[in-house]
Amino acid sequence: MSKKLTPRAEDYSKWYNELVVKADLAENSAVRGCMVIKPYGYAIWEKMQATLDKMFKETGHQNAYFPLFVPKSLFEAEEKNAEGFAKECAIVTHYRLQTDPDRPGKLRVDPEAKLEEELIVRPTSEAIIWNTYRNWIQSYRDLPILINQWANVVRWEMRTRLFLRTAEFLWQEGHTAHETKAEAITEAKLMNQVYATFAENFMAMPVIQGVKTESERFAGAEETFCIEALMQDGKALQAGTSHFLGQNFAKAFDVKFANKEGKQDHVWATSWGVSTRLMGALIMTHSDDFGLVLPPSLAPNQVVIVPIYKSEEEFESISKVVNTIVSNLREQNISVKYDYRDTQRPGAKFAQHELQGVPIRIAIGPKDLLYGTVEIARRDTLTKEIVSLNDLTATVKQLLEAMQKSLFAKALHYRDSHITEVDTFEAFKTVLETKGGFISAHWDGTNETEAKIKELTKATIRCIPLERNEEHGACVLTGKPSKYRVLFAKAY
Amino acid sequence: MSKKLTPRAEDYSKWYNELVVKADLAENSAVRGCMVIKPYGYAIWEKMQATLDKMFKETGHQNAYFPLFVPKSLFEAEEKNAEGFAKECAIVTHYRLQTDPDRPGKLRVDPEAKLEEELIVRPTSEAIIWNTYRNWIQSYRDLPILINQWANVVRWEMRTRLFLRTAEFLWQEGHTAHETKAEAITEAKLMNQVYATFAENFMAMPVIQGVKTESERFAGAEETFCIEALMQDGKALQAGTSHFLGQNFAKAFDVKFANKEGKQDHVWATSWGVSTRLMGALIMTHSDDFGLVLPPSLAPNQVVIVPIYKSEEEFESISKVVNTIVSNLREQNISVKYDYRDTQRPGAKFAQHELQGVPIRIAIGPKDLLYGTVEIARRDTLTKEIVSLNDLTATVKQLLEAMQKSLFAKALHYRDSHITEVDTFEAFKTVLETKGGFISAHWDGTNETEAKIKELTKATIRCIPLERNEEHGACVLTGKPSKYRVLFAKAY
C-alpha cells in the first residue's frame, strides 16, 4: 500500500479514509459497521478521555457504570426516545449456543434458550439509568445526582465511516437529576460550555454553541444544546450535545422526590455526550495532504527524536546526547519518544511521523554533535530549523505552545471566513454549492420550511446560535418574518 | 434499611451482599445478572484501573479497542474456546424494532430485520482479535504485538453475585503475539507476576502464583497461570489468569509470519485478564462487621475530615484550620475530603465513613482549636488518638503507610495459617469442613481423581504452585505416586 494519500482537493472523503487507515488510527473490522481502534488512535482517544474526565470531575461529576442491556419494556417506556432509536437497535434474543447437528464442530443458536423478554444493546442509557434513579431518589436531599459513564453504545447504522459513524462507538454519557427546571437547564448549558472549552483549548477546534431546532433535537429532549464545528471541506460536524430532558424521563419512570415543602414532584433531567466521533473531527480540522496534524495538547508523542548515524560508535555518541534531551523535555512534562529502531531508515521514520502527525521531529547526526545543534521540524508548517542544544528545551516548549495557538487560529480563520450571510434562496444555493461552510440566514421557524430547504439543498439547520443578534428579517425560503438568523450547512 | 450489617460469623454470604449494597459499591439492576456499579464502587475500580494500566504500559503494552460483537463463524473457529463459552453467550439476532400493531405505543422485534449471521456479544475477545491480527502480521518485524483492551464482556451466568459473578462485567484483556514459544511463555509468566505484584502491593492481598490443571484451564489455552487468594471464610478466589495459548488461535485464524530465515510459521499467543471480580476479592480480604476496610493505596478518599461545631462561628474557625490541613495533605499526594455537609450529624458521618472504609477519619471541634489538636481514627483497628496539628501531615503519612503494610501482614498471616498439609483423605475432609482454607496435598495427576475429589468434597485444585518442593508422596485419594503437592480449596 502506497504511503501517499489522495490529495484533499481530489477526493476529500477518500483522503480521510486513507489517512485514518495509513496513520494507524482505526480500521474496519469483520463485524459490519464496527471498527477496530488501533493503538495509536486509541492513545489519542485516551488523551481526550483523560482531559474530559478531569473537567467533568472539576464540575462535580462522578463516574459510575450501568448495564449494557436494556430490557425492551424499559426501553419503550419513554415513547419519544424509544421511537427515535427503535430503527437502529441491536437486539439480544437468545442466551446460549449449541452444537449444530448438521455441521460437525460448528455451533448454532439453541432454540430452547430464547429470552422471555428481549434485551436491547444500549443505543443510549436514559432508560436503564432513570429506572435505577427511581430507587435512589426520595427527597430533595438526594439531589442533584451528577453522574457520568464511559461506555460503548450500539446504533445500527446503514452507512458507516470510521470514527464519524460506526455501529458501535465509545462515548461518555452524563445523566443528571435536579430539583428544579432552572437548575437542570443551567447544568445542560454548563456541560455544553465544558465541551466548547475542550474543543477549543485542547482540540484547537473552534465551535459555535447553539440550540437545535425541534426536528434535530435528541429524541425525548425538550432542548438540545450543541457545539458545531466546520471541517475543511466546508461541511459542518456536530461535535457534542447536551440535552435538557425536562421531566420526560422522570414521568416515564415515575421518579419523584419530596421537595423542601414536603410536596411530591417529578425530577428534572439532563444528559450530555461526546464520542469517538471527536476523533473524526480532530482529524478533519487540522490534517493535510501529508497526513495527520495533531494539536500538541492531544498528541501521544509531542516530540520524536530520530538519530542519523552510520556506525555503532556514532549511534552511541548520539544516544548519549539524546538521553539528556529526553530527560530535560520530560522534566517539562513534554512527551517524547526516541525512535532508535534499526529496522527502519531515517527517511522512512520521517515519513511515518509526518503521516502520524507528531508535532515536533528532532533529527540529530554526527555534524550536530560537532556543532552542538539539532534539526527541528515542525509538523504543522513543515518548516525546519537548526537549534542550539543549549536552547532546545525552551525552544521546544515555546514551539508546542505556538503550534497549539496557531492551529486554533488557522482553523478559526477558515471557519470565520466560511460563515456567509445570505438573504435570498438563490444566494443560499450558490454559496452552498460553490463555497460551502455555514450559511447564516433567516428562517420562519417552522418544521415545514426546514424540511423543504433540506429536501431542496441537503442543508440542515445546524443550530440557532446562543450568541445571536436580534434583527428583523424575512425567511430565506418563504419570506415570512424572522427575528434572528440561524446557521445552515451540509453536515457529517 | 438498617445500617448494621449481618455479622460475618452469622452469615458470611449475607454480610458480603449487605456490605456491597450499604457501602454504595454496587447493586443489582433490572437486567438479570447485570449490576450497576455505583460512584463509590466505581471510584475504587478507577484506582485499580489506573494502577494496572500504568503497570501494563511500563511493561511495553499499548491499549486498543476491538468490537463488542463476534460473528458466529469467527466465534466457532477455535473449537475448544468456542465450546468453552457456547453455553453462556448472549446472541444478537435482529437489528431493528418496530411499532407493535397489537399494543399501541409499544415496540416489538421487527421480524424482517433478522441478521444473516448471528453476532455473539463477546465473552472474551480472542476470536475477533486474532482475526484482526492476521492482517497485521506478515514478518517477524511485526512482532511482538503487545496489546491490552479495557472493555465489558458478557457471560450468561445462572447464579450471579455482585462483583464476583455477573452476566456483564468490566475487565481488561491482554492479547499478545510472539515469534517463539519461549517468548510467549515468558510473557504469560510476566503478566501473572504483574497481577501478583498489583494484588500484594496495592490490594494488600497475598496471592499464590501457580498453574491450573488441565480441567481448570482456559478454553483454548495450553497453560493457564493464575493468582489465587484466600477469603476470610476460608474459600479461595481466582483473582487473575494469564494464558499461554500456544499456536491454537494462530492456526484457527491462519496467522503466519516469515521468520528471520524467511520461513513461514504460525504465531505464538498469550492472553491475560483481571476483572471487576477483584472488587469482590478486595472487599472480602479486609472488611469487617462494621463495613468496608480499604487499603490506603486504593481508597478514593484516604482521609476524611469531619467538623464538630454548634455555631456558625465555630464552623468558620474550624474550616480555616481544615483548609490548611487539606492543602498540607494534598501537597503530600494524600487524597482528602472535607465532609462539611450540614444535612448530616457528625455521628451519621462517622458511621458512613466507617461503612465505606475511609482509612483515616479526622474529627476537629472547638476544644481542638484551643489545644491545637485533632482526633484521628484509624479504620482498620478502629483505634483513636489525639494528635498535635504540628505533626499531623507526617503522622497521617506514616499511618497510611503503616496501615497498608499492616493490612497485608494480617491477610498474609490468615492465609499462611490456612494452608494445611494433609496426607490422608480423612484429614482432607476434616480440614476442609472444620478449618477451610487451602489444603496442600498429593495428587496423582489425573483428571479422574481431580473430578472424584470435587464430587466428594466440592473442593477443586486451585493451582499447582510455581514455588513448590519436589517430594515423593502418595495421592491423597488413590495412593498413587505423586512428585509434589498441589493446593485444593472450595472456591468462589
Sequence-ordered SSE layout with sheet pairings:
Two copies of one chain form a homodimer.
Chain A: H1 12-22, E1 26-28, E2 35-37, H2 39-58, E3 62-63, E4 69-71, H3 72-75, H4 79-85, E5 91-94, E6 97-99, E7 107-109, E8 114-121, H5 126-136, E9 145-154, E10 168-178, H6 181-201, E11 208-211, E12 223-230, E13 236-246, H7 248-252, E14 256-258, E15 264-266, E16 268-275, H8 277-286, E17 303-307, H9 312-331, E18 336-338, H10 346-355, E19 360-364, H11 366-371, E20 373-378, E21 384-388, H12 392-416, E22 419-421, H13 425-434, E23 438-442, H14 447-457, E24 460-465, E25 473-474, E26 481-482, E27 485-489
Parallel strand pairs in A: 3-9, 17-18, 17-19, 22-23
Antiparallel strand pairs in A: 1-2, 4-8, 5-8, 6-7, 9-10, 10-16, 11-12, 11-24, 12-13, 13-16, 14-15, 19-20, 20-21, 23-27, 24-27, 25-26
Helical residue percent band of chain A:
25-40%
Structurally, how many domains make up the residues of chain A? 3
- CATH C-level label of the largest domain in chain A: Alpha Beta
The proportion of strand residues of chain A reads: 25-35%
Oligomer: homodimer
What is CATH's topology name of the largest domain in chain A? BirA Bifunctional Protein, domain 2
Distinct helical segment count of chain A: 14
Which spans of chain A have pLDDT < 50 for at least 5 consecutive residues?
none
Estimated radius of gyration of chain A = 26 Å
The total strand number of chain A stands at: 27
Q: Name the largest protein-protein interface in this structure.
A: A-B, 63 and 64 residues
Q: Structural class, from secondary structure content of chain A?
A: alpha+beta
Task: Name the shape of chain A in a single word.
Answer: globular
Query: What's the overall average pLDDT of chain A, rounded?
Result: 97
Task: Output the CATH homologous superfamily of the largest domain in chain A.
Answer: Bira Bifunctional Protein, Domain 2
**CATH architecture descriptor of the largest domain in chain A:** 2-Layer Sandwich
